[in-house]
Amino acid sequence: MKKNINKILVLAAASLLMLTSCIKDLDTLPLNETDATSETAYANPENYLNGLAYIYGYWALVSQNNPGSSDLDFNDAGQSELIRMYMVLNELSTDSFKIIWGDNYISPIQYHKWTSADNEAIIAVYTRCMKGITLVNEYLIQTSDGRLEERGHSSSTDLVHQYRAEARFNRALFYYLLLDLYGNPPFALEENIGGELPEQIGRANLYAWIEEELLGLANGAEMPEKGDVPYPRATKGAVWAVLARMYLNAEVYTGTAQWQKAKDAAKNVIDMGYTLHDNYQELFMQDNTTNGATNEFIYAISYDKDNTQSWGGTTHLVSSTLSADANTNIGKELGLSTRINPESWNGYHVADDYVQRFHLAGVEWGATLGLGYNRAQSDKRAFFYNLGSVPEFDNTTTDTGWRCWKFTGLYSDGHAVSDSESNYKFSSIDFPLFRLAEMYLIYAEADARLNGGYVSDPTAKGYIAQLRSRAGVTASTPTSIDLDWLLDERARELMWEGHRRTDLIRYGYFTAMTFPWTLKGGVANGKVSLPEYREIYPIILDDLNANPKLVQNPGY
Known about the structure:
Elements: H1 38-41, H2 47-57, H3 82-92, E1 98-99, H4 106-110, H5 120-142, H6 145-150, H7 157-182, E2 186-187, E3 199-200, H8 203-219, H9 236-248, H10 250-254, H11 259-270, E4 297-301, H12 313-319, H13 324-333, E5 348-349, H14 352-355, E6 384-385, E7 403-404, E8 431-435, H15 436-450, H16 458-471, H17 483-493, H18 500-506, H19 541-546
Antiparallel strand pairs: 1-5, 2-3, 4-8, 6-7
């Protein structure tokens, strides 16, 4: 599926019911007689898989045309892509990620000053998730047993039931993102297609629906088992992974903690046979679909420079991180005769206070350092560089803070992407939404939450030991592992994978003055409290205006 997602049959979606100002043309009838409609798209039963592939591909693609043309009303198509802006909302709003560009969406998110007025990051993630839900709802209508019988496709019923389960998983995952980021979004199912405008059901009720939906998939016969379908399609491992993450944050979402459920769900995933890849860096290289990294991936978003191109996705995580000098000099440090990344957009930085959470051998904090540290003796998850910069981040210049090259133009054999390759500016790195390392950390944190704030389960300690061994920092692992140490370990292991905001909220640190970071709230030293309503983003104004049933989140 990875190589052909953008070549599938594009299915015409029915009315989206909302988001009319953001969607350009997906709620219209085809302009050409040759364009697919639901009446023609499923004439061939093989196209039920194509319809499912479109849902999977929607996580990465910005339109039915090309990566420079968005189906949302955005000037920059790459900034309309779901994973790119999901990363912005969950990382730029925290200590892990800084951007020095002047795009309108950046400053409000980075300095916690966003409002309910238009912000492209807030709009993009909300709109993509709601549109993805609508695509699934339409797919479920078109693949009902009644529709199959009408088309004479009843012999495909069992296989289509599996496809429907995978589609429902994607819908539940879209809803989970909305639950986490927006709290109380509109709730739409199949009956809303061509029917009543959707209503909000409240955060706790949405949590309960997602849990019930996922448990039905996890315990039913229709969702594929691990290994039953080709990568990167979802299996029961992905279902339990979403549940594990949701249970870990249940107290935030509902007011009631579910630590034991989180531990049990994580264990369900772990016991399915995923394996920790032995080389951390290879998880984020251009060939991470062929170098063994996918054995650790539970569910990933597929990108391919020739077939699933995007200026969002992992392309922005590769090309935005380095200046031209850093790009070239890191290549030299690694023994290459060329840069390591195809382009040098020079916009993404990391502040000194976040980098200090890593063990970096030979670093004297506050000094200007070459590559930054002795890599052979340091945490192998640390991919930082600050030659020509001062470690303290300054949002007025490009040459401060640290640059991070975790997502890279390198291949596992050591060579870098070359401009002689086709479409070399795009990334082929798949983005792991869920991987085994996170399940280890969920298991350990849930155990600590159940046992007075300290990890006591020997199995949990063993999982942490595996992560620390891969990182090359076993000697610095504390004998007694508490919750704050686990939060730092999550910062090291899961950096720039979309977890940090959720983690800080769960710990009560996101809005707390007692947990400062550089320029938090727009304050230089970050010693400021944020209002609690900042823990969720607003419902977008276009949706509020289009649907009078909706109520804005408190504070906005």
